[in-house]
Amino acid sequence: MVHQNDVFVRGIDEISEQCFGEIAPVVNIQNVGINTLTSLDLVYSINDLTYEYTWTGSLASLESADVELPMTPFVFNGTNTVTVTAADDENNSNNTQTTTFADAQEYSGDLTLTITTDGWGSEVTWDVRDYSGTLVANGGPYGNNTTYTETISLPSESCYTFNMYDSYGDGLLSGGVSLVDDQGTVIWQSNGDYGSGASKTFGYQVVTLGTTDVQTIGAVIYPNPAQNTVQIMGAEQASIAVYDVLGRIVWSQAKGDNQVQMDVSSLSPGTYFVRLSKGNQTQTEKLVISR
Q1: CATH fit for domain 7-102, picks 2.60.40.10, 3.40.50.11540, 1.20.120.140, 3.30.1490.20
Q2: In the CATH hierarchy, which fold is given to the domain comprising 220-289?
Q3: Among 115, 102, 95, 91, which Cα is nearest to 40's?
Q4: Average pLDDT of the segment spanning 15-29
Q5: Contact 205, 103 (CB under 8 A)
Q6: How many of the other CB atoms lie within 10 Å of CB of 183?
Q7: How many CA atoms lie within 13 A of 171 on its CB side?
C-alpha cells in the first residue's frame, strides 16, 4: 500500500568504538510516500539520554538522504545503544532504527608498534592523534622488506586514534603491523590488507557532559555546594539525571515539576553533573557535595 506521507528510516551508519563522550550519528531516511518531504522531526536517544532534531530539505518520492545529527554527549555504558525514530506518519512500522557501539579498549603504559614492510616501504606512514585531532606521535616512511619497532609514549591517559596510511592505496602486500601495550594486549593488528589506510580508536574515557550545551532550560540549582538536599527551580517537564565523574547515573527523575527536591544524602562527597533535558533544550550544571 502506498501512502501520501511515509518516511522510511533506513538505517544508522556504523559507529566505531568510542572513548570520547560525544558522537554525531548519521541516519539515512527515504521518502516512500507520494508527497514531497520538506521537514522531519526526529527523536533520538543514546543510552538513557533523549534528544530531538528537525531536518529540513526536499525529498521527492523515493529519494533518500543522510542526516547527520548534532554532536551529542552520551554516558559510557560498555555496549551503547542509539535509537532514531521519525515523527508519526501514515505508516509507523518503518519509523525506527537502532544500532549499538562499544566503549573503546583501554591501554597500559607505553605502546609498541611493529611494522614489517613490503617492497614499497616508502608508501608506509602512521600517526596517533588525541580526541581533538592533535598529533601526538608519528612515523615513516620506511625502507623495503624490513621490520621496524617503534615505542610510543603517550602524553597522558586520554582518548586516542591510531591511523595507518599507505600512499599508493594497496596496503602491505607482505608483512604486517601490530600495536600492543606494555601488558602485551593487542590494540590493533593487520596482515597489511588495509588499502589506503585504517584507524583504531582506543584509550581512556573522556566524559564531556556539562561542557557542550548551547540551549539552556534556565533552571536554578541550589544550594551548591550542597550537603543532603538540593533544590531545582524551573525544571517543569524536564527529565533530570545526576552523573558522577565517571559518567554513571546516580539519581534520575523522568519528568520534573517546577520545583524539585533531590535527596543526595546517600551520595559520597565530590563532584557531580546535573543534566536536565526538555525537547531540544538541555542544561548541565556542576554540583558539589561537601560535608
Answers
A1: 2.60.40.10
A2: Immunoglobulin-like (2.60.40)
A3: 95
A4: 94
A5: yes
A6: 8
A7: 15
Dihedral over alpha carbons 258, 259, 264, 270 (to 10 degrees): 70
What does the domain layout of the chain look like in residue ranges? Answer: 7-102, 111-203, 220-289
Same fold, 111-203 and 220-289: no
Tell me which of 278 and 4 has the higher pLDDT.
4
Tell me how far CA of residue 252 lies from CA of 126, 174, 219, in angstroms.
44, 54, 16
pTM here? 0.72
pLDDT of residue 280: 67
CA distance 86 to 245: 33
How is residue 171 written as a grid cell? 596496503
Q: Which carries the bigger pLDDT value, residue 65 or residue 133?
A: 65
pLDDT of residue 211: 47
Q: In whole angstroms, how far apart are CA 19 and each of 62, 78, 118, 206, 282?
A: 37, 10, 33, 6, 22
What digits encode the pLDDT tens for the residues 208-232? 765 444 456 788 899 989 999 999 9
The residue among 249, 198, 279, 230 whose CA lies nearest residue 75 is 249
Would you state the CATH architecture of domain 111-203? Sandwich (2.60)
Rounded Cα distance between 260 and 12, Å, is 36
What is the CA angle 224-228-234, rounded to 5? 50
- Lowest-confidence pick of 39-53, 55-69, 161-175: 39-53
Q: Which helix (H) or strand (E) holds 229?
A: strand 229-233
Each residue of 150-169: pLDDT tens digit?
999 999 889 999 999 999 99
Regarding predicted confidence, which is higher, 291 or 194? Answer: 194
Among 179, 166, 189, smallest CA distance to 120 is for 166
Q: Which helix (H) or strand (E) holds 83?
A: strand 79-86
